[in-house]
Amino acid sequence: MTNLVSTPTQPVMPDMASAPTFAVISGEQVQQALDGREKQIVELVEATYRLHGAGDSVNPPSYFLRFPDRPTSRIIALPASIGGSVHVDGLKWISSFPGNVRAGLPRASAVLILNDPGTGYPFACLESSIISATRTAASAALAADWLSRSRPRPSRVGFFGTGLIARYIHTFLAGTGWTFDTIGVHDLAADSASGFCGYLRQSGTTAEVTVHDSAEDLIRVSDLVVFATVAGEPHVTDPSLFSHNPLVLHVSLRDLAPEVLMASANFVDDVEHCLKAGTSPHLTEQRTGNRDFLNGTLDDVMCGRAVPPTDRPVVFSPFGLGVLDLAVGKYVYDEAARAGNLRLIDNFFHDLRRYG
């Protein structure tokens, strides 16, 4: 049985009079807490990157659960801890099953567990596919802003891959003040491209929307290129496609061949996280035998330690950090608590008496 109760923004911790509580926050509640808050979430993501860059976080490697009988599918665990005003520990557990698409289901599903840093007790479980898409899109919008400050601001955006993440990225770009003269669209699935165009029309954009039959055409006419595919290995191999020096948000991480990255300025969210698991930066490191192709992290740019050049393509390859999920998840929890909408599970923790 669940109770819908009004509670303070911090979880109730055990003491002499009370037991720890556990809340379940649905996808609908997550959406309500985040809808229309693009600027606030981008600011939160920026603050979280700064905390991570300053060392006020613990973000160990992600753990991949793979299946010999289902090689295209995986489930990933992202444990993390973040300090500052967020001050929470937790874990995102996110699956990627590409076969879902054929059945009409989204490829990814996820939950987020929040733990109290004082006791270790989990105090909430949140539907997290929306949180994951939100933090990914907020990170992309933040990177687009900072990485374009030393170069002309892009006015022609191209989306390669038109699923949920692409939609969220466009929403966050628009919600943080970006406007475009043209929006290019390319996807191997025609129905996906058509659906994305329908979303763009509903979004109220005044940009001219064009569906491109080839990736090459899309890239050549875009000065901001967003890769949001499900590619498992590089499929864009020609560096000359980027000779006009666009800004590239390489969100899906495995689209670009090492030759493209070697001809570009490269920024990541976290070096150690990004250079593993067969990502394009990881393959480039293996090809070159070093990390000299990296220009720095997004935090380096925000702190003035690195400046994106204007005479080369600039590529941002974010691995996706668990601390971002925690920050956005704790924001959602606090919003639900303030609104009095936390659904607490009665007696979730059983037999709390240490000696019976």
Automatic annotation (TrEMBL):
Signal peptide: none annotated. InterPro entries: NAD(P)-bd_dom_sf, ODC_Mu_crystall, ODC_N, SbnB. Coiled coil: none annotated. This is 2,3-diaminopropionate biosynthesis protein SbnB. It comes from Streptomyces hirsutus. The lineage of its organism: Bacteria, Bacillati, Actinomycetota, Actinomycetes, Kitasatosporales. The gene is sbnB.
